[in-house]
C-alpha cells in the first residue's frame, strides 16, 4: 500500500521514514494531493541514486509526468537554470556559475554577514529578557539580506527586493506568488541592466560579464540563475539556522559543550544538517529507463523522490542516528545532495549558520525553547522548515558577538 505524504507526514516524517526503511529502501507513495511517486529512504541507495544518470531532472519532461489538472509545477518560479537541467546543458551552466560563485567571492561576504547578524541580534537583545520568534528575528531576515549582498542589489532597492522574495518562497496564494514573481523579474532585469553598464564585483555582476571560451549565460539563463540563487540560498539557510538552534535547545548538554568550545561549531553545523536536514527530499527526478533499487524495479517514466531526511537518519550509516551529537565524526550526510547537483551554495549556507549560531550564543547567556503549544512545520514535501520558533532570551550582552 502506498504511503501518503500528507500533513501528518510533514509534521513527523522521521517516524514514517523509520518505518519505511525497516521494510525496504524504496516504496510507492502519493504526494502533492495524489501524484504517484517512488520514495527512497535509505542512505546507501539514496546516495547512489543522487548520482545515477538514469534519473533525470529536465523540468518540462518531469512536469509532463504529473497527472492532468494537478497544480504542482516544476521550475515556474526558478526559471531557466541548472537545477532542472541534465548534462550537457547542466555541465555548461554549472561551469559558468561556478566561475562566478567562487570560494573567494563567498569568503568576501563574511564581514557583511557578521554585520547583518550583529544588527539582527542587537534588535533581539532589546527584547531581553523576553520572548522572541527566532524565525522572524534571525533565521528568515539574515539569508534574505545576505542574498541582497550576493546579488549586489542596490541599498535603495533592498526593502522592495525582500518584500517580493518572501511571498514567492512562503505564500500559498498563487495570485500573490505570480504577482511577486513578475515584479521580481522586472526588478532583476533593472539590476542586470545597470550591471551591464557599470560592472560590479558581486556574484550577479560576475555572471553578467562572465565569458568562457565565448560562451555566456543568455538573458533567460541569467534571470533563472538569479532566481535559483535566491531560492536555494534562502530556504536552505533559513531552515539550517532554525533547525540547528532547535536541536541545541532540545539538547542542553550539547549546547553547553558548544558554548564552552566554539571550535565545535563546524561539527555542530554538520550535525544540524544531518539531524534535521533543511530539505525533506531532493528536488524531484524521473527515471529515463528502468532502475533496480533494493531488488525493486522502478519502471521508466516514473517520478522519484529521494528522502534526504530519511537517509540522514539511517542507522545503517550513522550510529545512534536519532540522537543529536556535535562530537559525531565521519559525518557524510546528504543534506546538500550528492553528485553533479550537489548544492553550489553549501559553503555560504554553512558560513551564515556558523556566524548566526556563534553570535546567538555569544550575545545571550540564556536561551530556552517555549513549548506552550506544539511546533508546526511547513506543509511541504521539499522543505523541512518551522513556521515559528518561540524562544525565551536573557542575559543580554551589549558587545559585538565577534562572530567574524
Automatic annotation (TrEMBL):
Q: In which pathway does it act?
A: Steroid metabolism; cholesterol degradation
Q: Name one Pfam family in it.
A: p450
What GO molecular function annotations does the UniProt record carry, in alphabetical order? heme binding; iron ion binding; monooxygenase activity; oxidoreductase activity, acting on paired donors, with incorporation or reduction of molecular oxygen
Going by the entry's taxonomy, the superkingdom of the source organism is recorded as Bacteria
**Cofactor annotation:** heme
Which UniProt keywords are given for this protein, alphabetically ordered?
A: Cholesterol metabolism, Heme, Iron, Lipid degradation, Lipid metabolism, Metal-binding, Monooxygenase, Oxidoreductase, Steroid metabolism, Sterol metabolism
GO BP, sorted A to Z: cholesterol metabolic process; lipid catabolic process
**What does the sequence similarity comment in the record state about its family?**
Belongs to the cytochrome P450 family.
Name this polypeptide is given: Steroid C26-monooxygenase
Q: Which organism is it from?
A: Mycolicibacterium parafortuitum (Mycobacterium parafortuitum)
Amino acid at each position: 500500500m502506498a504511503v501518503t505524504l500528507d500533513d501528518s507526514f510533514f509534521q513527523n516524517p522521521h517516524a514514517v521514514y523509520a518505518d519505511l526503511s525497516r521494510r525496504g529502501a524504496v516504496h510507492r507513495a502519493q504526494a502533492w494531493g495524489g501524484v504517484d511517486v517512488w520514495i527512497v529512504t535509505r542512505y546507501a541507495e539514496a546516495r547512489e541514486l543522487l548520482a545515477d544518470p538514469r534519473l533525470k531532472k529536465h523540468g518540462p519532461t518531469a512536469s509532463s509526468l504529473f497527472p492532468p489538472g494537478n497544480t504542482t509545477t516544476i521550475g515556474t518560479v526558478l526559471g531557466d537554470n541548472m537545477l532542472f537541467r541534465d548534462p550537457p546543458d547542466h555541465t555548461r551552466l554549472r561551469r559558468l556559475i561556478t566561475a562566478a560563485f567562487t570560494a573567494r567571492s563567498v569568503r568576501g561576504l563574511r564581514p557583511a554577514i557578521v554585520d547583518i547578524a550583529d544588527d539582527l541580534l542587537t534588535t533581539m537583545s532589546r527584547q531581553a529578557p523576553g520572548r522572541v520568534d527566532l524565525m522572524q528575528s534571525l533565521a528568515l531576515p539574515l539569508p534574505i539580506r545576505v542574498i541582497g549582498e550576493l546579488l549586489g542589489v542596490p541599498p535603495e532597492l533592498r526593502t522592495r527586493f525582500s518584500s517580493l522574495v518572501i511571498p514567492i518562497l512562503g505564500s500559498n496564494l498563487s495570485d500573490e506568488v505570480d504577482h511577486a514573481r513578475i515584479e521580481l523579474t522586472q526588478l532583476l532585469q533593472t539590476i542586470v541592466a545597470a550591471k551591464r553598464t557599470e560592472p560590479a564585483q558581486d556574484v550577479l555582476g560576475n555572471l553578467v560579464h562572465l565569458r568562457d571560451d565565448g560562451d555566456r549565460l543568455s538573458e533567460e539563463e541569467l534571470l533563472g540563475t538569479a532566481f535559483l540563487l535566491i531560492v536555494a540560498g534562502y530556504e536552505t539557510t533559513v531552515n539550517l539556522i532554525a533547525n540547528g538552534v532547535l536541536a541545541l535547545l532540545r539538547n542542553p548538554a550539547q549546547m553547553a559543550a558548544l558554548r564552552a568550545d566554539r571550535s565545535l561549531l563546524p561539527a555542530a553545523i554538520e550535525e544540524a544538517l544531518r539531524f534535521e536536514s533543511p530539505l525533506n527530499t531532493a528536488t524531484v527526478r524521473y527515471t529515463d529507463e528502468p532502475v533496480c533499487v533494493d531488488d525493486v524495479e522502478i519502471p521508466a517514466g516514473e517520478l522519484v523522490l529521494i528522502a534526504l531526511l530519511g537517509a540522514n537518519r539511517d542507522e545503517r550509516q550513522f550510529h545512534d542516528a536519532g540522537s543529536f551529537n556535535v562530537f559525531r565524526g565521519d559525518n557524510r550526510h546528504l543534506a546538500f545532495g550528492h553528485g553533479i547537483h550537489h548544492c553550489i551554495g553549501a559553503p555560504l549556507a554553512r558560513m551564515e549558520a556558523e556566524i548566526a549560531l556563534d553570535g546567538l550564543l555569544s550575545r545571550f547567556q540564556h536561551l530556552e525553547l517555549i513549548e506552550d503549544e506544539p511546533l508546526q512545520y511547513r506543509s511541504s514535501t521539499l522543505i523541512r522548515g518551522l513556521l515559528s520558533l518561540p524562544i525565551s532570551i536573557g542575559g543580554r550582552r551589549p558587545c559585538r558577538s565577534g562572530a567574524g
